[in-house]
């Protein structure tokens, strides 16, 4: 809601209060008896309650309207302050209650309107203007704010999850020994003192009614302040939240952290690169296009890039994106008409990483525009925007080579897009639609990893036929809609998916797409 609309609401409240206050102040002398002896302003009345009841209707209406104006002014000011100070974690938390506070405002306004109408019907005809002002204000609050806020409440919830979900953060390799379980992090945060530094405004959790348990500091700040000692070294769960991405010579590793490790949720610091118009409760681009997909997509990409986003593989071209649209669980994907526009906008933000990263960002944002809000919520709750940590660590335990671990990371964006676009049902997570309780979102990490190794002409890995890997591959095959294998293969550099590959048959590699041909068919990314 913009500042001008908020001021209009408060102005209407003020006009009503001043209008109604002016009448009784002229009529109330030192004793109430004088009021009782005054004649009514008109002899016409629908009903004639006692004088005390008539005055009670009037003053009750005034009191409720005044309280409502104060309440709305308080919340509006708080929302404006959090936006102007870039306290986006607090602002997004407030927004999750937006539909409820507008409901309360509308109910109070309606009660006040009923009371002032009863006062008018009892013969106080001076309340006609007050009724007109208050009825207009009530209708405005309901039609322009309450109803839209209820319609957008699922998007608001998904926006919070997209921006404040678990994150991948680069930490020094020397700090791995300190990264353990939830209990280890709690002990570590108590045993070290984070050095004073300028706080990031978006990290501020804000006011809360009940006590919020959790670690408020950023994990990198804690680790940079740590002093090696027995009381701080991890004793349980060591490395269980560290990705093994195969970059053995890198000075940093990727830590997967969030509420699952006891941290208080906060939005990604990448939010500083997002235009303010996309952070509204009803986002819209500067050119007037819907911006929900952009906001959700940028929130996800701000948390899951990993150590080397330039190396992420996503060889999109026109035949592939047309096939993705046709085979999508959310077909016919009406937002596909925004592809060129989204590409220009995201090129400005992510163009410094790589063209393939921009192409992945475009596809993700377009799918998020068309996907059912319940399906998105379920997908985010399953951490499907992130490379599967369990699969990654299981591969390491099965002695996967550094090149294979690196391929797992570099194929992760293809797996992410396929997991959302090719859900088994478009109504996933929506109650009352006859969805099997066993249905859940799934990332095809193993199959995508195998396809990328195929594209790089690697031999069959030693772990490919392991029973755990076969079980994972079977779940990937059954929990998605079955129309995605060729699309994933082409995105990873193959001309098609090898026959029987999804069933574990390594077979003969399909020829890779010629790099010169593929480059000429890639979607144009220049503005």
Automatic annotation (TrEMBL):
The chain crosses the membrane at residues 57-79, 100-122, 128-147. Keywords: Membrane, Signal, Transmembrane, Transmembrane helix. Residues 508-527 are annotated as: Disordered. Residues 1-22 form the signal peptide. This is Uncharacterized protein.
């Amino acid at each position: 809601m913009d500042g001008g609309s908020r001021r209009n609401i408060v102005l209407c409240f003020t006009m009503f209060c001043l209008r109604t206050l002016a009448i009784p102040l002229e009529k109330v002398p030192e004793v109430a008896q004088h009021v009782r002896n005054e004649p009514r302003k008109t002899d016409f009345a629908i009903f004639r309650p006692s004088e005390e009841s008539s005055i009670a209707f009037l003053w009750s209406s005034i009191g409720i309207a005044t309280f409502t104006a104060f309440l709305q002014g308080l919340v509006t000011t708080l929302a404006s302050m959090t936006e102007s100070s870039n306290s986006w974690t607090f602002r997004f938390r407030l927004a999750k209650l937006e539909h409820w506070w507008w409901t309360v405002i509308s109910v109070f306004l309606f009660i006040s309107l009923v009371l002032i109408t009863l006062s008018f019907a009892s013969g106080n005809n001076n309340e006609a203007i007050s009724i007109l002002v208050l009825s207009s204000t009530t209708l405005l609050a309901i039609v322009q704010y309450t109803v839209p806020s209820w319609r957008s409440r699922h998007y608001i919830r998904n926006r919070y999850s997209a921006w404040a979900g678990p994150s991948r953060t680069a930490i020094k390799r020397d700090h791995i020994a300190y990264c353990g379980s939830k209990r280890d992090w709690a002990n570590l945060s108590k045993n070290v003192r984070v050095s004073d530094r300028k706080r990031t405004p978006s990290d501020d959790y804000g006011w809360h009614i009940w006590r919020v348990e959790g670690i408020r500091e950023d994990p990198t700040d804690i680790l940079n302040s740590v002093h090696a000692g027995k009381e701080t070294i991890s004793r349980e769960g060591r490395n269980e939240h560290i990705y093994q991405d195969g970059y053995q010579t890198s000075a940093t590793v990727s830590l997967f952290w969030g509420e699952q490790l006891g941290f208080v949720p906060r939005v990604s610091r990448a939010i500083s690169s997002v235009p303010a118009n996309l952070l509204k409760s009803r986002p819209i681009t500067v050119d007037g296009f819907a911006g929900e997909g952009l906001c959700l997509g940028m929130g996800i990409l701000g948390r899951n890039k990993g150590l080397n986003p330039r190396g992420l593989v996503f060889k999109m071209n026109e035949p592939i994106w047309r096939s993705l649209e046709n085979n999508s669980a959310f077909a016919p994907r009406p937002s596909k008409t925004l592809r060129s526009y989204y590409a220009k906008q995201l090129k400005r933000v992510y163009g410094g990483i790589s063209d393939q990263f921009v192409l992945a960002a475009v596809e993700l944002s377009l799918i998020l525009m068309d996907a059912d809000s319940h399906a998105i919520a379920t997908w985010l709750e399953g951490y499907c925007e992130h490379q599967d940590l369990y699969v990654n660590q299981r591969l390491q335990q099965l002695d996967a080579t550094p090149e294979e671990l690196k391929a797992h990371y570099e194929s992760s964006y293809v797996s992410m897009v396929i997991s959302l676009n090719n859900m088994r049902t478009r109504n996933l997570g929506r109650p009352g639609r006859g969805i099997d309780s066993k249905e859940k979102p799934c990332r095809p990490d193993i199959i995508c990893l195998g396809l990328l190794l195929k594209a790089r002409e690697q031999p069959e890995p030693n772990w490919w036929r392991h029973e755990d890997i076969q079980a994972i591959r079977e779940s990937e095959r059954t929990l998605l809609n079955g129309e995605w294998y060729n699309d994933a293969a082409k995105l990873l550099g193959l001309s098609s998916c090898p026959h029987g590959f999804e069933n574990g048959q390594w077979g003969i590699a399909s020829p890779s797409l010629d790099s010169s041909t593929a480059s000429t068919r890639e979607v144009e990314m220049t503005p």
